[in-house]
Amino acid sequence: MNNVQIVEVGPRDGLQNEKEIVPVEAKIQLINKLAASGLKRVEATSFVNPKWIPQLADAEEVLQGITRRTDVTFSALVPNLRGLERAAASGLTEIALFMSASESHNQKNINKSIDDTFPILREVAREAQALGLRVRGYVSTVFGCPYEGRVPVENSRRVTHALLEMGVYEVSLGDTIGVATPKQVHEIIGELVKDVTTERLAGHFHDTRGTGLANVVAALHEGIRTFDSSVGGLGGCPYAPGAAGNISTEDLVYMLHGMDYETGVDLDLVTLAGAYIQEQLGRELTSKVLKASLAARSV
Ligand code: HMG
Ligand code: MG
Question: Which pLDDT does position 235 carry in this prediction?
Fold first, then answer.
């Protein structure tokens, strides 16, 4: 199987971590450019408590402003019923639930224990499905926790299964703080795929220590064919100190195409989207392909 699906998370995972709040119009332009580049799945924003993530407090305005396309699924993070209400009112057809494999990250990120999170997310998933929405799920800190270090694979298995039982169609395995190495990806994903089919799993790698793309290759070897990435390599996690951006979409697309995988993404167009948000932010982003492409244009 040579198709790989890319879930673009830059407008959410990337921009949630920018110190400066990006104007609504720039977010709308960015999302429109990403959607026009051939990406079929774009996580556009979050419906979380705006006091926790003021960077995405404009979720409604952003979703109202973007050009809807039938060939692109837009989604958003939702932590509770209030978030679901807001997402549904914004006309989304997909939401993403999120929680952590480690107790302390779950507590810092969503202000409750893992066991107290299950019934809340179960209710959100049930209501969302009743409204006809598709539900994705994230497990954070699968490969390491900023507060607890190594996280037993049993924790990730338990949370992954709980999300699947709620009706989540795909669980994205998060290397929240970018500590994973290919060996660990092989061990952990190799363990999880023993009782979850690869079609139900995705890889979400942050590139804090430069192992992000190597981890994608390791996950490809385990049969994973869906990966999350951020244009330009934007990103981080406000509740994971030192976390850097996600792997960059441009770098991921470049690597996958060179390995004969098909993504449906136009590398030039997605790189132009990276150049756009880099200019808006006024700082150099980490994507290597973006940097090389801009350098080639200036010679
Ligand atoms: P809480 O403060 O404990 O919530 O937050 P609460 O239920 O007690 O409510 C407190 C106030 O927030 C109330 O308002 C609510 O109405 C309001 P008040 O009465 O004080 O005026 N509120 C909301 N307002 C709007 N929309 C909502 C909402 N919910 C409550 N949905 C909560 C609990 C989970 C909401 C909070 O902790 C939160 O928003 N956390 C989100 C943190 C976050 O977004 N983290 C980053 C995303 S996760 C990530 O990046 C990892 C990932 O990329 C994968 C990886 O890399 O591993 C996905
Ligand atoms: Mg993330």
Answer: 79
Whole-angstrom distance, CA of residue 263 vs CA of residue 256: 8
> C-alpha 90: how far from its chain's center?
20
Catalytic residue among 42, 135, 234, 237: 237
Model pTM score = 0.97
Structure tokens at 245: 């951006």
The first and second tokens of residue 169, run together, are 């169609």
With tokens 């979380």, the residue in question is: 48
3-class SS shares of the chain: helix, strand, coil, % to 5: 45, 15, 35
Tokens matching residue 111 = 């202000």
What domains lie within the chain, and their CATH numbers?
5-298 (3.20.20.70)
What distances in angstroms separate CA 82 from CA 75, 96, 114, 120, 139, one per listed residue? 16, 14, 19, 11, 21
- Residue whose CA lies nearest to ligand 1 atom number 56: 176
SS3 87: helix
Q: Mean pLDDT for each consecutive 10-residue tract of the chain (299 residues)?
A: 94 90 96 98 98 96 97 98 98 98 98 98 98 98 97 98 98 96 98 98 96 98 98 75 85 98 98 97 93 87
The residues, ordered by sequence, that sit 6+ positions from 236 with a Cβ below 8 Å of its Cβ are 13, 14, 16, 17, 206, 243, 244, 245
Q: Find the radius of gyration of the CA atoms of the chain.
A: 18
> Nearest to residue 100, comparing CAs of 147, 54, 66?
147
Residues with CB under 6 A from ligand 1: 13, 16, 46-50, 52-53, 77, 79-80, 82-83, 86, 98, 109-111, 138, 140, 174, 176, 204, 206, 237, 239
Contact predicate 67/35, CB 8 Å = yes
237 is catalytic: yes
In contact, 99 and 110? CB cutoff 8 Å: yes
Q: Which residue has the tokens 């934007």?
A: 234
